[in-house]
């Protein structure tokens, strides 16, 4: 780690005895639902009224501390427009966690989120932890997707589910924490090597993921 | 930190970031201003009184050294032959803008208006560039139904607008880029983009094999690193003056320039890339190499793109493109989506 170039967020914070686990997490969902905003809130504690549209994908890292474990997320924030879809497998291949985001004020984005869940269930690592985020919960007055409907869908599919707001920060840290808690932190955990499709990205991840808990 | 003589907003209206390095920018500008002065004289002589720009070797050489910003609209139109396109349909732009527009396209474009260069003073709600940008993008989406609206075009059209200050010129330059200069980057399947990323990977493999192997070993696909480079033609990636200098050559010499830029970035930063020993540091490294001093010093950078990559012939690129396009078609036939 001596040559690490990034800022303070990912420095293990000094506690000598904690395990450090690294997990790859990908955000998927229709354009403008708030994927980048959720990441910006989680990583930097900020919100921009006008967040730039993401092209390709953006990479960020953030660390959360559980009781006895430090979990370092390697986050891929992807582009939402449908035509970037063919690039998505590169990002979810080998991912141990995914947050599928929709906008509670837009029914179409919920449909799109369901398609992402299906695709992940088919193509991603079988052990991937999937969370569904109904974002923009601060805009409840314009709500088009009922909480109960999304909750029922999440339950059926074994997904974590929360309504979030990148704007007010509601449930943003919580959803990442919930994922961190659900991820296997045992020696063999991580799930990177599990999937048949876990090529390329996973190749690089595998040695590290399996030795992630020191 | 001394804020020196530079304002917090650059000449194209972008707010300088908190971590903007005024000192190294001052270094750069003190040299670059001299370059600009000589260049302005030469171009003034070349353009003279109302002389038109032809695609000659002299002009090509001048273009490589950079087009003065005040001449960019005219020269880009001429060297890219967008001018000829426009002469064939002089009323096209105005006609499309008479409408009607499809709601779906309008919604798509409108979503991205406030999300394009939000830290540029000309693109705020109060300024008028959002309206111009809407017109360019909506006109193009209706003019070319195969492309429609692809995210990324907002940054290209936005920067064209900043550089030319003309909606209609930006429209024609966008059209010539998408339809004549670049392969199918922006169509629904983005085939041309995916092929060009493979082409780049192959070129890196042959020109800088150790870097290629290292990046593969650390598990970072080239597509992850370079999608935005290709889609945005380095807008929102490299410093703005460097991007415009690249576009000068792009409009004259075509899409081959993009490979030269990619390979230069990779090859000149070989040491930093090879020093990364995990995936995270490598991903971060590719974020910094597009912002460092050598990327900022656009004049040296543009000299480097014609030296550092070594020979790169059009026929090599054509062959590689054909090879990967064929592979892709065969793959798609095997596994229909
Ligand atoms: N009111 C409200 N607005 C939000 C929230 N999250 C994001 N937004 C706004 O929604 C717009 C889109 O947010 P982004 O984070 O850029 O969306 P994205 O999913 O990353 O979009 P792409 O990069 O195009 O795929 C931005 O203008 C945000 O300010 C939220 O929780 N509440
Ligand atoms: Mg985004």
Automatic annotation (TrEMBL), chain A:
InterPro entries: P-loop_NTPase (IPR027417), Small_GTP-bd (IPR005225), Small_GTPase (IPR001806). Its EC number is 3.6.5.2. It is an enzyme of class 3 (hydrolase). Its main location: other. It catalyses: GTP + H2O = GDP + phosphate + H(+). One of its GO terms (cellular component) is early endosome. SUPFAM superfamilies: P-loop containing nucleoside triphosphate hydrolases. Residues 188-197 have a biased composition (Gly residues). The keyword Lipid metabolism does not apply. The keyword Protein transport applies. One of its GO terms (biological process) is protein transport. Keywords: Endosome, GTP-binding, Hydrolase, Lipoprotein, Nucleotide-binding, Prenylation, Protein transport, Transport. It comes from the Eukaryota. One of its GO terms (molecular function) is G protein activity. It is found in: Early endosome. Pfam families: Ras (PF00071). Residues 187-214 are annotated as: Disordered. Belongs to the small GTPase superfamily. Rab family. NCBIfam families: small_GTP. This is small monomeric GTPase. The lineage of its organism: Eukaryota, Metazoa, Ecdysozoa, Arthropoda, Hexapoda.
From TrEMBL, chain B:
InterPro entries: Rab-GAP-TBC_dom, Rab-GAP_TBC_sf, Rab_GAP_TBC_domain. SMART domains: TBC. Pfam families: RabGAP-TBC. It comes from the Eukaryota. The keyword Calcium does not apply. One of its GO terms (molecular function) is GTPase activator activity. Keywords: GTPase activation. Residues 66-254 form the Rab-GAP TBC domain. May act as a GTPase-activating protein for Rab family protein(s). PANTHER family: GROWTH HORMONE-REGULATED TBC PROTEIN 1, RAB GTPASE-ACTIVATING PROTEIN 1-LIKE. This is Growth hormone-regulated TBC protein 1. The lineage of its organism: Eukaryota, Metazoa, Ecdysozoa, Arthropoda, Hexapoda.
């Amino acid at each position: 780690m001596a040559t690490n170039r990034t800022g303070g967020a990912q420095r293990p914070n000094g506690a000598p005895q904690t395990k450090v686990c690294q997990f790859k997490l990908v955000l998927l969902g229709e354009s403008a639902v708030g994927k980048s905003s959720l990441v910006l809130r989680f990583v930097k504690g900020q919100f921009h009224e006008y967040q730039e549209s993401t092209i390709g994908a953006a990479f960020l890292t953030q660390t959360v501390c559980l009781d006895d474990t430090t979990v370092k997320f390697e986050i891929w924030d992807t582009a939402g427009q449908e035509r970037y879809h063919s690039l998505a497998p590169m990002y979810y291949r080998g991912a141990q966690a995914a947050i599928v985001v929709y906008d509670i004020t837009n029914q179409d984005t919920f449909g799109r989120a369901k398609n992402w869940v299906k695709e992940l269930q088919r193509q991603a690592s079988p052990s991937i932890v999937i969370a569904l985020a109904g974002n923009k919960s601060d805009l409840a007055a314009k709500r088009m997707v009922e909480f109960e409907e999304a909750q029922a869908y999440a339950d059926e599919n074994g997904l974590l589910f929360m309504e979030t707001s990148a704007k007010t920060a509601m449930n943003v840290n919580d959803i990442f924490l919930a994922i961190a808690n659900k991820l296997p932190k045992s020696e063999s955990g991580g799930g990177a090597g599990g999937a048949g499709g876990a090529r390329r990205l996973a190749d690089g991840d595998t040695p590290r993921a399996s030795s992630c808990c020191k | 930190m001394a804020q020196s003589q530079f304002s917090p907003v650059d000449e194209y209206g972008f707010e300088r970031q908190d971590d903007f390095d005024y000192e190294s920018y001052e270094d750069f500008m003190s040299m670059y201003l001299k370059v600009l002065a000589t260049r302005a004289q030469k171009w003034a002589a070349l353009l003279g009184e109302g002389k038109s720009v032809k695609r000659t070797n002299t002009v090509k050489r001048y273009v490589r050294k950079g087009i003065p910003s005040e001449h960019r609209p005219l020269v880009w139109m001429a060297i890219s032959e967008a001018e000829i396109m426009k002469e064939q349909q002089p009323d096209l732009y105005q006609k499309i803008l008479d409408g009607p527009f499809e709601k779906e396209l309008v919604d798509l474009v409108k979503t991205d208006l406030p999300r394009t260069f939000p830290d540029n003073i000309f693109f705020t709600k109060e300024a008028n560039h959002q309206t111009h940008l809407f017109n360019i993008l909506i006109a193009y989406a209706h003019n070319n139904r195969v492309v429609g609206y692809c995210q990324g075009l907002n940054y290209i059209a936005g920067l064209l607008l900043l550089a030319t200050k003309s909606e209609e010129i930006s429209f024609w330059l966008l059209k010539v880029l998408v339809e004549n200069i670049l392969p199918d980057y922006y169509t629904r399947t983005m085939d041309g983009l995916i092929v060009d990323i493979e082409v780049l990977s192959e070129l890196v493999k042959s020109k800088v094999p150790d870097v290629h192997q290292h990046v593969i070993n650390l598990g970072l696909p080239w597509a992850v690193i370079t999608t935005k480079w290709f889609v945005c033609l380095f807008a929102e990636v490299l410093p703005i003056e460097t991007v415009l200098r690249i576009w000068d050559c792009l409009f004259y010499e075509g899409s081959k320039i993009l490979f030269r830029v990619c390979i230069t970035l990779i090859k000149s930063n070989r040491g930093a890339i090879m020093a990364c020993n995990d995936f995270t540091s490598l991903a971060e490294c590719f974020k910094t190499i597009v912002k460092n001093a050598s990327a900022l010093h656009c004049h040296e950078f543009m000299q480097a793109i014609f030296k550092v990559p070594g020979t790169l012939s059009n026929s090599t690129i054509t062959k590689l493109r054909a090879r990967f396009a064929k592979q892709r078609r065969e793959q798609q036939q095997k596994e229909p989506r």
